[in-house]
Design goal:
Layout: H1 9-22, H2 26-39, H3 41-45, H4 57-64
Amino acid sequence: MVKVITIADDVYKELKELKEARGMSFSQILRFLLKKAKSNPALLSLAGTLEEKKIRRQSYRKIKEGGEVLF
């Protein structure tokens, strides 16, 4: 079954670059990233724990907008 999702342009660009570099489909890339995230729950548990004052404002905004992939 095919589903349509909406993602930010910057996320699409990063997924596309990863897709082309690995020679995989978007579905394969998403499966790969989900598997990595599930295999490292400690990493996911850290998401959202940093306070804005502890990191540069620009980095905070980028992370908050989903612009960083932390794998």
